[in-house]
Amino acid sequence: MTSDAEQLQGIREAYDEQYGFRDPDTFVFKARKGLDAEIVAQISEIKGEPQWMREQRLKALEIYQSKPVPTWGADLSGLREDDIYFFVKPAEKEGRSWDEVPENIKRTFDRLGIPEAEQKFLAGAGAQYDSEMVYHRIRQELEAQGVIFKSIEAGLREHEDLFREYFGTVVPAHDNKYAALNAAVWSGGSFIYVPPGVQIQMPLQAYFRLNTANIGQFERTLIIVDEGAFLHYVEGCTAPTYSTDSLHSGVIEIVVKRGARSRYTTIQNWSDNVYNLVTQRALVYGDATHEWVDANLGSKVTMKYPSVYLMEPGAHGEILSIAFAGRGQVQDAGGKAIHIAPRTTSQIISKSIAKDGGRSSYRGLLKVYPDANKSKSTVVCDALLLDEYSESDTYPYIEIEAPEVTVGHEATVSKIGDDQVFYLMSRGLTEDEANAMVVNGFLEPLTKELPMEYSIEMNRLIQLQMEGSIG
Amino acid sequence: MGAALEIRNLHVSVEGQPILKGVNLVVKQGEIHALMGPNGSGKSTLANTLMGHPAYEVTAGQIIFDGVDIVELETDERSRMGLFLAFQYPVAVPGVTVANFLRNAINARRKAQNPEDKGIPIPEFRKLLLQKMELLQMDPSFGGRYLNDGFSGGEKKRAEILQMAMLEPRIAIMDETDSGLDIDALRVVAEGVNRLRGPNLGVLVITHYQRILNYIKPEFVHIMMDGQIVESGGPDLALHLEEHGYVWLREKQANGDA
């Protein structure tokens, strides 16, 4: 491994080179800017959807338009709906091999290392470019076991009954304004079904890429992990750096049935002109486990609180949240654990870092309903400030309605201490190296939870964020 | 020829308050010096100033190390020149293992020597670490623990000595390494230092008590009071101090000042 120093050198400028590059626009269809019923109908039309879905979309649009922009969190007043392309179709059809993907788009994913990762350590990979998936493939032996891993559109087309049974049941359109928006204009994302008892050892990965300026990306993912099955799904995302804003507003719905286990890992590294407003929720049934590993490093504004609904006795949910707010960034992240059934357990661990005037907030909800007796929950949120210009806030909401509940809650805010830096520098590390070492150590409890490949990626991204002036 | 640390007429203030008021001291490679003195006499201020802590302001004087005045140098530069401070209160760095930290510290040195350096190969590093741990009679599992995080007082001080062994400084300052240690822990730490003794290492042992000097035998003993070194001598000076306390020195000072 290279030393922290080498990783630090000049990487910050490298976002543009490594991730922030853009391709010429080669879409096959681009809807006009802005949002109304006509655009929604057009999206449904192009996708050749059944009538019920079109109606659901139009109803969701009404819900979206009736709900005010939320003002309780990050400032969203800069988001201009009229200035956004809500649908940009990148290719005629989705490829089952990389050869079927248009050349320039394939080049982009090559550059991001996706086909290589797929070969080395993934059970399957999907790739979305602007509004739609351009590629999806899963290893044959998994397909033979009945595992479904397709674009959300193919899920609707080819497995309509299964799709309809779950779609919109975990995150209904009226849940919040941006869930309604997604329900109206959703496009792209994955549809996954893991049959009972099937254990997928290597992760499935989807990579989300924006290319067009002023685009809105509204991926919708539906995952059903049937009884006793296991799945690890990973999503990554990057975008070109533009001076105008883009919007990413995804909805992830997961159903984890009795005795199953699932983990959903996000490494969000959008360029810092992207509003990232995402609703992620998992329903967890008897003795099942769901884990969210949620790392937010990029974007201009992120509001994201992955949640677990513990529906039956023995259900367990974990949320590991990492947020890194640099110059001009607001990371409003956290998690929600909702205990509905007795003897359910949850853990929320949040680690947030702010530097160069960035602002990171932990916002979390722990709710225990009256029936959820003998439940247990632990909430730990630690914030680390790298300088005096940055801010960190904690909003831990706890609502307990059952009599016998065990709850642990800890929150710490620390500043990288002069004494810590002095100590490390007294061993020959430069100031930047000393700071990077403290940050990596702070995040270590979470990065060690990631599979090796992602752990390395994460450390690299942290170095990228750390480069530059530190108080 | 060995390197020397020469402190010349050093004046230091903390938050505008003068603490050191003209310290003169020379420590050469291969020599062991003890610096004793009552609480508040400025011993730890001297240690922190030598290492370049930003809160300590040098208002006059020089610190010459290996022929270079290091007063304006950053802490990390001083370290890479071969100066080492064993801390009185080592700082915890949660999530960073002792081994990972030491590898980074060694690589920082190599890189300063040669910007093209790719860092110490991991097998070579492991071998070196195990060798030094064996020398200091430490359990190899120590390398996997988070630096000073949850360490007992004795473990912290041993970790300091391990760092000293790995980084091979030319001059080491040990700031009250004996504080907070029971007699067994003190002996273990002192034995560690003794194993590192040799012609290439000069040590300045800063201590409040004579006790540690039973184990680390100094050739020179200095006494600091009110920001100055008021008395220097051989090992018998420490014994005399143990027997008679600081009172006679205070009186001597008072008479001198009058």
Tell me briefly what this model is.
The complex is a heterodimer of chains A (471) and B (258). Chain A is of the alpha/beta class and 471 residues long.
Characterise the protein shown here.
The complex is a heterodimer of chains A (471) and B (258). In chain A, strand 3 (124-129) and strand 4 form a beta hairpin. Chain A has two domains: 1-29 and 416-471, no CATH class; 30-87 and 139-414, no CATH class. Mean pLDDT of chain A is 90; it is low at 1-13. Chain A has 471 residues and is an alpha/beta fold. In chain A, helix 12 packs antiparallel against helix 13 (452-466). Chain A has helices at residues 4-8, 14-18, 37-46, 51-66, 103-111, 114-121, 140-144, 152-158, 160-166, 177-185, 418-425, 431-447, 452-466, and strands at residues 29-30, 88-89, 124-129, 132-138, 148-151, 190-194, 204-209, 216-217, 220-225, 230-238, 246-248, 251-256, 261-268, 274-284, 289-296, 301-304, 307-310, 316-325, 330-339, 345-354, 359-368, 375-385, 391-400, 405-415. With 258 residues, chain B is an alpha/beta fold. Chain B has two domains: 4-90 and 169-257, 3-Layer(aba) Sandwich (Rossmann fold), CATH 3.40.50.300; 91-150, no CATH class. Chain B is built from eight helices and ten strands. In chain B, helix 5 runs parallel beside helix 6. Classes of the chains: A alpha/beta (471), B alpha/beta (258). Chains A and B meet through helix 1, helix 11 and helix 12 of A and helix 2 and helix 3 of B.
Note the main attributes of this structure.
heterodimer; A: 471 residues; alpha/beta; 2 domains; 10-stranded mixed beta sheet; 24 strands; disordered N terminus; B: 258 residues; Rossmann fold; 6-stranded mixed beta sheet; 4-stranded antiparallel beta sheet; 8 helices; 10 strands; globular
